[in-house]
Automatic annotation (TrEMBL):
SUPFAM superfamilies found in the cross-reference section: Calcium ATPase, transduction domain A (SSF81653), Calcium ATPase, transmembrane domain M (SSF81665), HAD-like (SSF56784), HMA, heavy metal-associated domain (SSF55008)
Name of this chain's protein: ATPase
Pfam families, sorted: ATPase-cat_bd, E1-E2_ATPase, Hydrolase
Membrane disposition: Multi-pass membrane protein
Domain P-type ATPase A: 308-398
Species per Swiss-Prot/TrEMBL record: Cloacibacterium rupense
Gene for this chain: ccoI
NCBIfam families: ATPase_P-type
Amino acid sequence: MAENCFHCGQEIQKDRISFDEKVFCCNGCKSVYEILNSNNLGNFYELNKNSGVRPDEISTQFDYLDTPQVFEKIVDFSEGNTTVVTFKIPVIHCSSCIWLLESLQELNPNIKYSQVNFTRKTLQVSFNQNELKLSDLAKFLTNLGYKPVISLETAEKKEAPVDRSLIIKMAIAGFAFGNAMMFAFPEYLNTGASADYWLKEFAPFFRFLTFLLSIPVVFYSASDYYKSAWFGLKNKIVNIDVPIVLGILVLFGRSIYEIATDYGPGYFDTLCGLLFFMLIGKYFQKRTYSALSYDRDYKSFYPIAVTKVDFGGKQENILLSEIKVGDRILVRNQEIIPVDGILINGEGNIDNSFITGESATISKQPGDKIFAGGKQIGSILELEVIKTVNQSYLTQLWNKEAFRKEELGLDTLVNKISKYFTFIILGITLLAGIYWYQIDFEKMFQVVSAILIVACPCALALSTPFTMGHIMRILGRNKMYVKDALTIEKMAKIDTLVFDKTGTITYNKKANISYEGKEISEFDIKNIKSLLKNSNHPLSKSLYDFIETEDQYFTIEKFTETAGKGYEAELRGKRYKIGSASFTNQQSKSLETAVYIQCENEFLGKFIFKNEYREGLSNMARHLNHYELHVLSGDNSSEEEILKELIPNITQMRFNQSPEDKLEYIKSLQEQGKKVAMLGDGLNDAGALKQSNIGIAIADDSNSFTPSSDVIMNGEVLTELQSYFSLTKDAMSIVKMTFIVSLLYNVVGLSIAILGKMSPLVAAIIMPVSSISVVAFTSLSTWLRAKKYF
């Protein structure tokens, strides 16, 4: 009796290795078992019996990965003792693979974390490069049975093209279908009293030819369906491919029986056609998904601009997409670094927690390399760009698990419905099979196959991702950039809107500014303007543009910022403080918005602001009358009456609010059962944005990318907010309508199939047609709804 390896489950053909009362097919499997067992990870095998992957028996050399040129191309990030790399691992196939690969830190103390992307078959690993070389990491994964595929394509982080094997499978099925139909003509024509003797004589030969044509179709073209169904069943999941596989096997088995007993021609031509049309539907689905993914990753550039500076010190705001290698850019305090660069001026204090998960900061000096994704804590930096912006990398950073808010979405709901739907279909098939067995045994096979094929809930499963994908594209084209499909669902449920005041409902740069205080020397004015350049606060930006003096950059030392209050630093031998009245130890004499200036503990004066509110604010408030509207501000209440006049339907206003106060206010609304959307500055209001059900970061022309937000919105379209929220509500209606359409397909198709009025071939044609019609319906519906608003 053949034995199977305890680790990988494969039949032992050569050496039988016994260890720990278990048998293994090779030393590799035995070694992996020992590693897992010694690290108390033996429950890996409890997830799924025989779930291991057999290690590669060939000693693979990965030493070339440690050469600087290759290392630079392969890794995503390398700073200090931390390196992050993403490997392509095609053999990832089930839940136990994911469990093992996400437990690597238990197997090797030099690995900090590992994360699997199952759909893309990739593994991202963060490890200590001083203790574990990149080549050793690749060898370690290979010894576990998960050999990384490393090529120029994966090194350059390109998206994988459409699966060529799918095209080959589709071509084989199409070729077999066409020829099988041709060979089946004698059977169709060989009826009645005038039957042609020659056709009748050669019918067995034509039947045998159709059988031969069906073999590569059934065993190769349909292989993906078998794998999907098998892996699902191994993980105790009955997925939508199970009934499809049953239908294929029933038709194939019945057809073999008919030609073997000379009972009839079988259904080989129908079977080839069935798989051909199903593969067309699958190809269409993959291409459409690929198009949506490409559009999100590379075309939806966030409405962020960075400050480009020339060698003469002249500054210019440019879009991320316009950054070129060799450009020099400025990165201010708390800003995310958008590109890889070399530090030219300034003292870097880089927080890489968004990338590595560690909160420690790393000091950088001029000449050092700085990776995209880090956040500068301190004074302004001048960088020379060495890599252009990688939009997909920023999207990956934005979608980090640490910033996700767990909530059940429609997509998850559809998957659950699909699971129960499969059981219902199998039950209907069984009942219909029993009925037709008693009525017409031969027809039973046709009915059972037709039911199993036509009832596939593909259209149901496609309705949500395709609708949401189109909505995300439409919003992106209109300068609202949404993190994921679940965000759109949550936007549709919002009933409370909370606005930050400064820089959100007011313009960043437009303000009436006046000065009150001592005369400031030209020396101090230049220092103050240079210091203002370091801050991202809207008032600092406005004041920077207001001060008219030569634009020079002086080295900033000991820069510190207190969120919501102000900042201080030393430059050219003097220490300055810029911020609120309390920050500079002054008393606010009247209700006003002002920036106070202090030099060497001497109060110089204050710049008084009269904010200019965004045009169309009153109109926006009127259209949002079915929402609760709240305004939070770090400023005092000097403009309370103006706000009440601009937003008469305002529910509540709060002033002198610190970032912590705003976060607590959001919590209090949520405790009342409110679904809250917070709109504010992506940097100063990060806590409140993350706490809210939907965090919307308002960006004008600054690098205010923040992983804490769910949406990044261009400030110039803020007053059209109602249109964006209305479109998300319409999206939910479209999804519900597609549910109805797809269910209608299944009800009508099932009814006809149960009555025995549908052949398996027609069922196979209807299945991709239903998917195509759902995609066409969602595309047309979303386009029409978008036209109404934009």
